[in-house]
Design brief:
By secondary structure, the protein is an alpha/beta fold. The protein starts with a strand and ends with a strand. The strands form seven sheets. Strands 11-12-10-13-14-9-15 form a seven-stranded parallel beta sheet, sandwiched between helices. Bound molecules: adenosine-5'-diphosphate and zinc ion (2 copies).
Length: about 725
């Protein structure tokens, strides 16, 4: 037998598969097996992508694999990776790297431990029906308690109860102890309320679920892409839960994608409470061992619901009936490494492969989703409460970072009690520093961007490459000691609000990328949840799908900040951010109120958000996109050439520009981008109506360049559907 093997190498120029001759004792090798193979004179790992009876090469010129690793990949994920490699102009090896079990290539194994279990005699000893030889010492109270604990817990890791004590009971035959494989399980966070029994659905939820069930029971993969467009607080999660329930009931499995578990622990908690151990979780806060074990639980069928961020789209489940993408508008579904896949596109592909239903849920759908999916609606909040009124506050001519109306509203809240969420999409203290006498601006030495002041840490930092330096005390150019700070970030707003309003019974908490790790952030959310009143200040993280019943006030500072990005999605992002933040307010018994501070009060996205008019916004946005030929009316492909030498980067971009001309495609650029990590960059953008043809042309051009000798100095990265 011949195995066609794709070696797991990072090099773009090496493209398999390569043939290997299997030995008779390697008959268990199948598509998806992970092999150790000699490759280019060195040992390497490779994935079997096909089997064949014969090879075009002479049998004696074929090498044999050195070994077969215990855990491979299901064949459908091999096919998915091959498709992904093409769709995102990447290589099969890089795409296969994404679908392997976590740590599979790093020698990750199952953990073994001593497991203790009550024996039949142990049972009887506890019941007092065991007859032991005369002269045997009676069990102590401690020993009885230990046996009772074992009975209630079932098989338990011995060290958790005391290995020595258990071994003495083993010697008497009351306990059995053996080495066994154990599954490492991630710790659970419980935030918010969750119930194991489903509540009766509202009529709106009923209608949406009925449509999902119809799609679920329809054979084939046609008309199975559904958009659940529900206003914030309309009970989308409950619809997901019952759709998953129905999927499990017909014997199929489900994938639930969420933007980031540490920021939305509530969603995970609801799934675990409803379905228990059948739910497997994967997220970046887990150790590799935990992720490996959860992966195995899915692959073996012990777990049949996978919940996680974008990489959970690769969950090794068989017979998938339902793929859910919660908060489908979130940018985090796009992967920034190579291949630059979009989990929403991959999920759609995977759902079609399994003839599964794809369900995308959000309060702020992307225009492309609206135009491609069947539209289900939840137009009302669960409790019938109105969406909070939104007031737009004009900041032109204001000097304080908080508008007087905002300050009044916060003072009222402080007096009357309650919670507010304050969103400012900018970390740090102030966004740039300049010299008051010569005007010099403190810039990153590696990137063409200003350094941001982080006052608490005593440093200025580049938010692109992470470069840090001490806070300057004088200007290196003119030696002046007068340094001006411009703009306000979350750190400064947190301090201002703490000084003005903070108190032991009114905490001011901050949530952003600077506020340490994932667990720390989950704890911040737990504290905010538990407090009777207080403020949560932070970047867009504070606007994620949290469900706190007692948030009376939502405040967006500098709402047009996202509009100033030169990006066709700027409007969409701004609209989503304001709508999502408004969605956090007024969920409980208290009516909500939302204040939006902006320098651009007349901006379309802000005006539509202020009226909670997502249909109006989408209709308007679709007209604009059609006129400008943006998605969904065309596909975009972005190519970035980067090099230490700006001329070389630019020359490569010009060269590619000439090669990627495809019928029906417009090629924009090359345009310079700001220097990043000491590399000059040049970009071209292709707008294409024939997506497949454009991808093929770009792939061919980039591969050809990768083979050219001069390629080493210039790195070329391709981004299909850039964010
Ligand atoms: P969304 O995700 O649409 O913003 P959630 O799923 O967070 O909304 O639901 C809002 C609140 O309503 C949650 O506290 C949820 O438990 C509750 N809820 C959802 N459906 C029902 C129902 N049918 N009956 C009672 N409460 C419900
Ligand atoms: Zn100066
Ligand atoms: Zn930098």
């Amino acid at each position: 037998m011949i195995a066609r093997v794709q070696p797991l190498t990072r090099t773009r120029a090496v493209r398999g598969p390569f043939d290997y001759r299997l030995r008779p004792d390697q008959s268990e090798v199948a598509v998806g097996s992970l092999l150790r193979v000699p490759f280019g004179g060195r040992p390497s790992l490779g994935v079997v992508v096909g089997l064949a009876g014969t090879s075009e090469l002479e049998p004696d010129r074929l090498a044999e694999p050195d070994g077969v690793l215990p855990v491979g990949v299901p064949p459908d994920l091999v096919r998915l990776a091959e498709w992904m490699a093409g769709e995102y102009c990447s290589t099969p090896a890089r795409a296969l790297g994404l679908v392997l079990a976590p740590g599979a290539t790093a020698g990750q194994r199952r953990k073994r431990a001593l497991i203790a279990e009550l024996s039949r005699s142990g049972e009887r000893a506890l019941d007092g029906t065991l007859e032991e030889p005369p002269g045997t010492r009676a069990l102590t109270d401690r020993q009885r308690a230990l046996l009772a604990q074992l009975r209630s817990r079932g098989p338990t890791v011995a060290s958790e109860l005391g290995t020595e004590a258990l071994k003495r009971l083993q010697a008497r035959g009351l306990v059995a102890i053996a080495q066994r494989e154990i599954a490492r399980r991630p710790a659970r966070h419980s935030v918010g309320s969750a119930s194991a029994t489903p509540p009766p659905l509202t009529p709106d939820q009923e209608r949406a679920l009925a449509e999902i069930l119809v799609a679920l029971s329809r054979p084939g993969s046609d008309r199975k892409e559904l958009l659940l467009h529900g206003v914030t607080g309309s009970g989308k999660t409950e619809v997901y839960l019952q759709a998953v329930q129905a999927t499990l009931a017909v014997g199929r499995s489900a994938i639930v994608l969420v933007p980031e578990i540490a920021l939305t622990p509530q969603a995970l908690h609801r799934f675990q409470t409803r379905f228990g151990d059948i739910v497997a979780v994967m997220h970046s806060g887990m150790s590799q061992g935990e992720r490996y074990d959860e992966w195995l639980r899915l692959a073996s069928g012990d777990a049949r619901v996978a919940v996680g961020p974008r990489s959970a789209v690769f969950a090794p489940l068989s017979d998938i009936g339902l793929v859910i993408i919660d908060e489908e508008h979130e940018g985090s579904y796009k992967h920034e490494g190579d291949p630059r896949y979009d989990a929403r596109t991959v999920a759609a592909r995977r759902a079609r492969d399994h003839a599964a239903v794809l369900l995308l849920g959000t309060a702020t759908p992307r225009p492309e989703t609206v135009s491609s999916c069947r539209h289900l609606r939840l137009p009302r909040r669960i409790d019938g409460r109105a969406l909070p009124p939104v007031e737009v506050l004009d900041m032109r001519g204001q000097h304080h970072p908080l508008h007087p109306v905002t300050r009044h509203a916060l003072a009222d809240l402080r007096r009357e009690g309650g919670k507010a969420i304050v969103l400012l999409n900018r970390r740090g203290w102030s966004n740039f520093l300049s010299c008051r006498s010569c005007g010099r601006v403190w810039m990153c030495p590696h990137c063409e961007v200003a350094l941001v002041l982080h006052r608490a840490g005593g440093f200025v930092a580049c938010h692109h490459c992470g470069h840090r330096e001490r806070v300057p005390s004088r200007c290196p150019k003119c030696a002046s000691v007068a340094v001006a700070r411009h703009g306000a970030g979350t750190e400064r707003i947190e301090r201002e609000l703490t000084d003005a309003l903070g108190a032991p019974d009114f905490p001011v908490l901050r949530l952003d990328a600077d506020s340490s790790g994932l667990h720390e952030r989950a704890r911040t959310l737990e504290r905010f949840q538990a407090a009777a009143g207080g403020l949560l200040v932070g970047t867009q993280m504070v606007a994620k799908g949290h469900d706190f019943p007692d948030v009376a006030l939502g405040i967006v500072l500098d709402a047009d900040q996202t509009l100033r990005f030169p990006d066709f999605r700027a409007e969409e992002r701004t609209f989503a951010l304001i709508t999502q933040l408004a969605g956090r307010a007024g969920r409980g018994t208290r009516a909500g109120r939302v204040l939006v501070q902006t320098l651009a009060p007349e901006a379309r996205s802000i005006a539509f958000a202020a009226h909670h008019d997502s249909d109006g916004f989408i209709a308007d946005e679709l007209i604009r996109r059609e006129a400008l030929r943006y998605p969904p009316y065309a596909s975009l492909i972005r190519i970035v050439c980067a090099a230490a030498d700006g001329a070389a980067a630019h020359a490569t971009a010009r060269d590619l520009h000439a090669r990627v001309q495809a019928p029906g495609a417009t090629v924009l650029g090359p345009a310079p981008l700001f220097r990043l990590r000491d590399r000059e960059r040049s970009q071209i953008v292709i707008k294409a109506t024939d997506r497949a043809a454009a991808i093929a042309t770009v792939s061919a051009a980039v591969d050809e360049r990768a083979r050219a000798a001069s390629a080493r100095r210039v790195s070329v990265s391709v981004d299909v559907d850039p964010q």
